[in-house]
Amino acid sequence: MKRLKTVIIYTALVLLLGGGSIAGAADGISRAEFMKVLQELKTVQDKVENLSRENRDLRREISDLKTSDAVVQDATINDLKEDVEELSELMTTVERKSMMDRIQFGAELRTRADWFDYNERASSSIWGRRNRRGKGEEVRALVSNRFRLNLKAQISDNLQFHGRLTMHKNWMDNDMPDFMDYRASRRPSDNDLNVERAYIDYFFSLHEKLPMALSFGRLPMADGLPTDLRENTPRKATFPSLAYDTEGDGVGLSIVLDKVTGLKNSALRFIYMRTVDDNDMYPYRTTELNLEETNYYITQFETMLPGKYLQDILFITNFIILPDVPSMDLTGQGLTPIDLPESMGDMWYLTFFMQAKNFLGSNFDWFFGFSYYDLDTHGGPVKYGLGPIPINITFNNKDNRSNKKATAYHVGLRYNIPVSILNNPKFGIEYNHGSKYWLANTGASEDPLNKLATRGYAWDFYYIQPINRNLTMRFGYTFVRNRYKMGMAGPDHVRQKIQNTYLLLDAKF
Amino acid sequence: MRVPAICVFLAAALVAVVMVQPLEAADGKSVYLKKCGSCHRSGGEAEVFAPTKYASTQWVRFFQRDKHKRKKDISADYTPLELEAVKNYLVDHAADSDQPEAVGLR
User: Fold this and answer.
1) A461: nearest CB among B7, B22, B23
2) CB contact under 8 A, A235 and B13
3) Which residues in chain B are contacts of A160 at CB distance < 8 A?
4) β-bridge mates for residue A107, sequence order
């Protein structure tokens, strides 16, 4: 701007000094014209000065504004800093609490009412002759409470803990605790919390393609597949219930095979479990004829099947072997031992199981399980004396010499009724069958009739009505027809009909 | 075996329901796997996430406040039914939901 002003003044002076020559020239401009130009130049100069002034004013205003904004911004930044510091303190407190809370808790409360109807006509051969008798019983609305405290801890990146403590009792009843450790928390007894499961998973890898997990403790064995359908939960156990559905202590190694097989969720599991009866009921008993340890060696392969039409199917094959099953100890039952062989024989089970949820998007869940059981007898019968009367207790056969085989299968279907206004209730049907010598490992079954142990057949119908995300109602009916039952000298023929109608309420949170 | 009357009733009810057109067409898991998974996959334009990323209440808030819009507006890619189905699926499998358990299962 200053430069422009200088140019204008300089031009005006030049024109002023050269005025004579301009005036003297023949074609020169007149003084009047010159003065006019000079006047115009003066006008221009005034405008330039005005503009210059306005510019200065504007600069001043901008400067003022900037100063004002800076003050506001500084104030805002300070506020935000204070907020962040406060939030940071809060986050630290929350994080510390979260890290201190090593165990996360969940809970389940179930109240159920059962109406049992039991009828039996049996033929027993224990006395060497057939003994026919009949009996029956009805139980009206046996109401029970089951409370579960579920525990979980992510101890570190590769170490996690799961636990479940359970109280299970009939209303206002305080029965003796169930000393059968494989079902101690699964049958109504007293008010105590029992440890149903408490185990650690340690995840590691010896080869990048073979992630592994070492698990030990009281393992998740009860509520085997497909109990999750009837219970309307995710998978809650390692094995199919047809193969093994009891509580149990053991150690296991899982090898994840996804990267090797290319199959989703494929894994090989090796599990060793042991049961031992050291007779806690009779700690001072003089005859320490306890049941020696029974060892379970379990191998299981599981995977989701490949292919567009099979991808929803979980396939499991499970092999259980119990070598040298020890003799049955009934010393505490008023019997005198005569001959107790060390082992009664070997047993093994081979089970195949498939389960699909929302199969092909059809809202249908289904499962199919088949188990083959083989009994290899060796050793003589267990001989006791009841006073002068000798009793032979055999190993799931009559003669304690012959080997026996048995099969069982379990099929079922659940339909997820797609009515959102009813919270998508579910309806399920199950059927299972067990042959004469079938010997199930299902003592901790969720079903109070332990229907999978039947040597006959069983039907099961249920309707699940979710009330909201945390509350569910289930109504069901189970019908069991047993053809044989376990006797001390092998299976006894029986005509046994057991029915159970039940209604339960489940709250989970 | 005589089939109890209740079984006949329940079977009839089941058939009746099956014949009714599904009222909720979208399957949350499928939509989550296909649509969400088209971006949220390893090597995809968005990070991989599992429903256990948030607790159920946090998922509900996520959808109520349409938080996805801050990063990308996906409203044109999903029908309202699909969004509802995905929300239900994520809530049902959230961090505070009942999780599967088995030996050696992460």
Assistant:
1) B7
2) no
3) 106
4) A149
Q: Domain containing B62: what range?
A: 28-92
DSSP string, A107-123: EEEEEEEEEEEEEEEEE
Determine the residue type at A446.
E
Indicate yes or no: CB of A201 within 8 angstroms of CB of B105.
Answer: yes
Asked if pLDDT for residue B21 goes beyond 50, the answer is no
Residue A433, domain member (yes or no): yes
Q: Cα separation of A487 and A496, whole Å?
A: 14
**pTM for the complete prediction?**
0.79
- Specify whether the CB–CB gap between A480 and A498 falls below 8 A: yes
Q: Of A30, A63, A95, which residue is a domain's last? A: A95
Query: What angle, 0 to 180 degrees and rounded to 10, lies between the N-to-C axes of helices A31-100 and A2-17?
Result: 170
**Residue A180 phi/psi, 5° resolution?**
-80, 105
Domain with residue A332: its CATH number is: 2.40.160
Same domain, A272 and A386: yes
Give the best residue of B6, B103, B105, B106 to mutate against chain A (max A CB count within 10 A): B103
A273, A413: one domain: yes
The tokens of A13 are what? 């002076």
Among A289, A393, A302, A404, which Cα is nearest to A353's? A302
Asked if A301 has any chain B CB less than 8 Å from its own CB, the reply is no
A508 interaction partners in chain B (CB closer than 8 Å): 98
Candidates A220, A420, A461; nearest CB to B102 = A220
Please indicate, yes or no, if residue A103 is contained in any of the structural domains: no
Per-residue pLDDT tens digits for A166-180: 999 999 888 877 777
pLDDT tens digits, A343-376: 888 999 999 999 999 998 889 999 999 999 998 8
pLDDT band at A280 (very low <50, low <70, confident <90, very high): low
Phi-psi region of A13 (alpha: psi -120 to 50; beta: other; left: phi over 0): alpha
Q: b vs e for A343-371, b when ≥16 Cβ sit within 10 Å of the residue's Cβ? A: ebbbbebebbbbbbbebeeebbbbbbbbb
Chain B residue with CA closest to A460: the answer is B7
Domain coverage including residue A9: 2-95
Q: How far apart are the first and last CA of chain A?
A: 78
Q: Which of A236, A421, A424 is facing B101, going by the closest CB pair?
A: A236
Assign 3-class secondary structure to A5-33: HHHHHHHHHHHHHCHHHHHHCCCCCCHHH
Optimal mutation site among A413, A427, A503, interface B, most CBs of chain B within 10 A: A427
Residues 6+ apart with CB under 8 A from B93: B50, B51, B52
> Distance between CA A237 and CA B52 in Å, rounded?
20
Q: How far is B46 from chain A (nearest CA, A)?
A: 23
Distance CA A268, CA A271 (A): 10
- DSSP, collapsed to helix, strand or coil, labels residue B42 as coil
- Cβ of residue B24 closer than 8 Å to a chain A Cβ: yes
Are B22 and A271 within 8 A, CB to CB? no
ipTM rounded to 2 decimals: 0.75
In a domain, B48, yes or no: yes
**What are the beta bridge partners of residue A158?**
none
